[in-house]
Structures are given as structure tokens and as C-alpha cells.
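Input record, target 12 of the design panel.
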């Protein structure tokens, strides 16, 4: 008889089966060992990226920690300093780095929860979780203290008892309603499973416990080269504990990746363009490999391609823009997709309508006028002199001892002619161009300022100790004359740095009779004091010496 039997010896079949069994067992053992190998990751918080140079240090930081054998990096919020235009390049740089990066938002990334779209236009969501080698990392959104509760409750329910958990959010316990509100009641039943809760926001290192939950608040890792900060190496040995190593950022030798990003520049370096009809702007882009494209946008509009690459141009039409100031941004990409570190920027001004009959505009170095002077004095730095710097209305601290700045501003009215001999002032407006704000709130009744006439002469070189005695206000005191005007600053924009500056109008009509007197007796005109009332905010404006003339303070006088 003949037939097809096993063509291999039985011992060889057994050897193959044994070898396959060994591979399965080895894979299972290695997998279990990998799960129990200590997890090592990096954590930073409060990088506050708000400038092109900060973005460059972010790129260098990721490259410089790549050899520390960390498995990933967690960024605990306030990734940007109220500058959402940097969120996209921050994400792109992280995606190009070799180290996985997990982000969560802080109050500067979503404008205190008023603009979550800043974040969600770049990142998948305000809260999420990921699992790494058996440990569940919960990335919670804490700026809105309740929005994530339903998701958090459901996610905690999905994690089996005894699983390892690391809880992350931007705000530390004291800023997130611990222990009786916020996420903490939801976390309390899983306290035995939570290895550690990580947070930032406070800009200082601090250890707390919320019930049985260990909480570590990390110091900031500001990427502004003038400031100090720390980064952290965190190791989870697998026994329910965490080891935290703290390292000064300034001691980290920052290195740049070999492949440099492209650069882009405008030929005209003034940074300011007046567009009445159309204007063609030209520039150049360079890269160590090849420039693939150059793009431009106005404000937060969509990006559009420029004509050309190494040498490019863009044509702007005033008819397609509203009157006023606009921000032009330009960036380039290389043939690997890398974008410019930040943006080339310019202010584009479309002329506004001329004042109507009976209204006079006064602004430094426009239409022959040169009589505006202004200065900030600082109670918290009383000997400082700020001539030529931005104007500040700032207040912060228990007794306004951390920050207190007020503005002095005057317009020389000598030679100003009324439209008619019997004309009287009907309206008076002071237009200031806001370039920075922080902690301004849309709530009614806060962010207050007060205005009075300065009681004696002053100069732009004066400091706080030399300011006029009248009104002599300070937020911690009730002394001094009553304000002629008390108002509330509107929130000009969600961003901290406002590019370009936007106009805020102060109705000064209550000073109409005072200005009438100044017209008759110019020597009595010492201008005004604009001072913060007791709150915690700061707001800044362009001064009369700012390089772009249409962003300088403007006084509008309307006669009847």
C-alpha cells in the first residue's frame, strides 16, 4: 500500500511544537514584565508660550530631553500665555519630536473657559484619558469645574478596581474646590487606586493630600528665557508610589535639532502699512533644504498662499478690509512640513472716516499736532521712570502692593479754534489703544477705573514719588478727591497680548466745562489721571510715542 503520511520525523514535529510553545510563554512573560517595569515620564506645566522665541525654546526642549529615557511628556496646562495662535505650531512641533506629548488645557489656553474653541480647534478635546502599560492617565479640564464631571464619572466606572490611576489637571486642589467639590468627590472612592494627582497653575512646588489622595503641584516651566522654571522626571515603580525628580530648566543644555525650520521676512521692515486702495508686499523665505510654500492671513482668518516661495509677494486690497487696524501674519513651510518658528507680523491700517463737522481729532504727530504727552507711574516700583513705554492701569495684591500703576495724559489745547465764537463742547472722548489685558472679566461691577484732572504740572520723566499730590489716589485708601468719572473697562479681547492694539473709548464728556476752562486758560491744563480702583487686573495701552501713529492716544472734541 502507498499513501501520503507525515514526511517529517515525529521528534522534529515535537521540537517545532515545543519551540512554538516556548515563544508563546516567552511573549506572555515579557509582556507581564514590561507591564511591571517602572513607568518613567516627564511632566511640565505653565510654559506660557507667547512669543516666537518661546516657541523656539519649546522645540529645543523636546530635542534636549529626548535622551533622558522618558516614555512620554505630560504638559499640565497654560501651554500658551493667552496667545492661542501658538497652539497649532506647538502641536506640530510636538508631533515632529521623537517623544510622545500629552497636553491638557489651562486657564490661559481657553480664556478662563470663555473660549474653549481656542483649544478644540487644535486638540481633540478639553478632557480625555490614555492608558500606558496598565496605568490609566486621566487628563481633566479644570478651568470649567463641572463640564467634565459626567465624562469623568463614566470613565472612572469603566476602570476595574485595583487598576493604577494618575490624575492630571491644571488647577491644584485649593483652586479646584477640594475636597468637597470639583472632581474630588468623584475621585474619593478610587483613592486607593490613585497613585498621584498632578497639577500646575500655582507657579510653585507644593505637596498636598486630599483625603487619601497624594497631590503634587509642580512649579512652572516658563519658556521665556528671562524667567526661571523646572521640569520633572516622574517614575512609577509599580508598587503604588511615585518618585519625582525636579530639575531647573536653566541647567538643561538646550540643543536645536539638525534640521532647521524655515525663516520668512518682509522686505519692508517697518511693520506698518497703510492700505487705501491696494498694496503689494514682498519678502523672502529661506530654509536649509527647500521652502515648499509661503502663506499669509489677516487676523484669525484662513491661511492663503503667497505668490512665490523663496521670493514671494502678496497683494492686499483695502476694499476687502474694514477700516481700522489689522494683523497680517506670514509663515513658511519647508519640504518636510516644518513651519516657521512663529510668524512674520505687520500692522495693516485701512484709513477710517474723517471726523464730521464740528469734531476735532487730536493725535500726536498727525495732521500737524504735537501736543500730547503721557506717562505711567508705578506705586509698586516708585522710583521707576517709564517715559516712552506702554501706558499701564494695573492693580494686584492684597493692598495693591504687588502692582499699582496709573496713567497721566494731557493734550495741549493752545491754539485750538472753535468752529464758532458761541460754540460749546458737546462731547469729549478719549480713545486709547489697548495692547495687553489680563484678568479682565465680563462680569458687571469689577475692573473699575476712575478719572480726575491732575492738580498740578507734571513731566513725562516723573516717577510715582514725584506725581501730583492731587488726586493722589491709591486703591488701598479712600483718601483723595472724588472721581469725576468712574467706569469699567470692557474686555477688549480674550488674548493677553492684543495684536494689533484695539480702541477703547472713554466718554470724558463730564469734563466738558473743565476743557472749556482750559481753552480760556491753557496754563491750567494739566491733563488727566486714570487710576485703577481696588480689583485685580491689568490693562495696557500704546503711548503717544508708539512708532505707529494711528495707534497713539486720540482726543475727540465735538462742538455744538
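The sequence produced for target 12 reads:
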Amino acid at each position: 500500500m502507498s499513501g501520503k503520511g507525515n514526511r517529517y520525523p515525529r521528534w522534529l514535529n515535537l521540537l517545532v511544537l515545543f519551540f512554538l510553545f516556548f515563544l508563546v510563554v516567552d511573549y506572555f512573560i515579557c509582556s507581564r514584565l514590561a507591564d511591571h517595569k517602572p513607568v518613567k515620564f516627564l511632566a511640565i506645566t505653565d510654559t506660557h508660550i507667547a512669543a516666537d522665541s518661546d516657541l523656539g525654546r519649546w522645540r529645543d526642549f523636546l530635542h534636549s530631553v529626548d535622551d533622558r529615557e522618558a516614555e512620554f511628556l505630560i504638559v499640565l496646562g497654560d501651554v500658551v500665555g493667552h496667545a492661542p495662535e501658538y497652539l497649532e505650531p506647538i502641536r506640530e512641533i510636538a508631533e515632529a519630536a521623537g517623544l510622545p506629548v500629552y497636553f491638557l488645557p489651562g486657564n490661559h489656553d481657553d480664556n478662563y473657559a470663555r473660549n474653549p474653541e481656542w483649544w478644540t480647534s487644535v486638540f481633540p478635546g478639553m478632557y480625555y484619558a490614555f492608558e500606558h502599560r496598565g496605568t490609566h492617565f486621566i487628563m481633566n479640564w479644570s478651568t470649567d469645574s463641572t463640564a467634565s464631571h459626567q465624562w469623568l464619572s463614566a470613565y472612572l466606572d469603566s476602570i476595574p478596581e485595583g487598576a493604577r490611576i494618575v490624575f492630571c489637571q491644571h488647577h491644584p486642589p485649593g483652586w479646584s474646590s477640594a475636597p468637597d467639590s470639583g472632581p474630588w468627590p468623584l475621585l474619593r472612592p478610587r483613592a486607593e487606586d490613585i497613585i498621584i494627582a498632578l497639577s500646575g497653575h500655582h507657579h510653585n512646588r507644593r505637596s498636598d493630600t486630599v483625603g487619601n489622595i497624594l497631590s503634587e503641584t509642580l512649579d512652572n516651566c516658563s519658556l521665556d528665557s528671562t524667567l526661571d522654571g523646572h521640569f520633572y522626571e516622574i517614575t512609577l515603580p509599580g508598587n503604588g508610589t511615585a518618585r519625582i525628580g525636579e530639575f531647573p530648566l536653566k541647567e538643561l543644555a538646550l540643543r536645536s535639532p539638525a534640521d532647521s525650520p524655515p525663516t520668512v521676512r518682509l522686505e519692508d521692515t517697518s511693520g506698518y502699512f497703510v492700505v487705501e486702495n491696494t498694496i503689494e508686499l514682498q519678502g523672502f523665505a529661506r530654509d536649509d533644504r527647500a521652502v515648499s510654500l509661503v502663506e499669509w492671513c489677516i487676523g484669525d482668518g484662513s491661511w492663503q498662499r503667497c505668490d512665490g516661495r523663496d521670493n514671494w509677494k502678496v497683494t492686499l486690497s483695502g476694499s476687502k478690509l474694514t477700516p481700522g487696524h489689522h494683523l497680517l501674519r506670514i509663515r513658511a513651510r519647508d519640504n518636510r512640513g516644518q513651519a516657521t518658528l512663529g510668524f512674520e507680523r505687520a500692522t495693516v491700517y485701512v484709513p477710517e472716516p474723517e471726523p464730521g463737522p464740528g469734531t476735532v481729532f487730536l493725535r500726536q504727530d498727525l495732521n500737524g499736532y504735537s501736543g500730547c504727552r503721557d506717562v505711567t507711574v508705578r506705586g509698586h516700583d516708585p522710583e521707576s521712570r517709564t517715559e516712552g513705554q506702554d501706558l499701564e492701569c494695573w492693580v494686584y495684591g492684597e493692598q495693591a502692593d504687588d502692582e499699582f500703576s496709573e496713567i497721566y495724559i494731557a493734550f495741549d489745547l493752545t491754539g485750538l479754534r472753535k468752529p464758532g465764537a458761541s460754540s460749546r463742547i458737546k462731547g469729549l472722548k478719549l480713545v486709547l489703544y489697548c495692547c495687553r489685558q489680563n484678568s479682565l472679566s465680563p462680569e458687571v461691577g469689577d475692573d473699575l477705573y476712575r478719572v480726575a484732572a491732575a492738580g498740578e504740572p507734571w513731566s513725562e520723566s516723573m516717577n510715582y514719588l514725584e506725581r501730583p499730590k492731587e488726586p493722589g489716589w491709591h486703591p488701598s485708601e479712600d483718601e483723595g478727591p472724588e472721581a469725576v468719572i468712574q467706569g469699567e473697562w470692557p474686555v477688549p479681547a480674550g488674548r493677553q497680548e492684543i495684536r494689533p492694539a484695539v480702541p477703547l473709548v472713554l466718554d470724558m464728556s463730564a469734563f466738558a466745562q473743565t476743557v472749556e476752562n482750559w481753552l480760556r486758560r491753557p496754563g491750567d491744563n494739566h491733563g488727566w489721571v486714570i487710576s485703577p480702583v481696588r480689583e485685580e487686573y491689568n490693562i495696557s495701552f500704546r503711548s503717544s510715542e508708539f512708532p505707529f501713529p494711528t495707534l497713539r492716544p486720540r482726543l475727540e472734541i465735538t462742538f455744538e
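Residues 39 and 132 are 8 Å apart (CA to CA).
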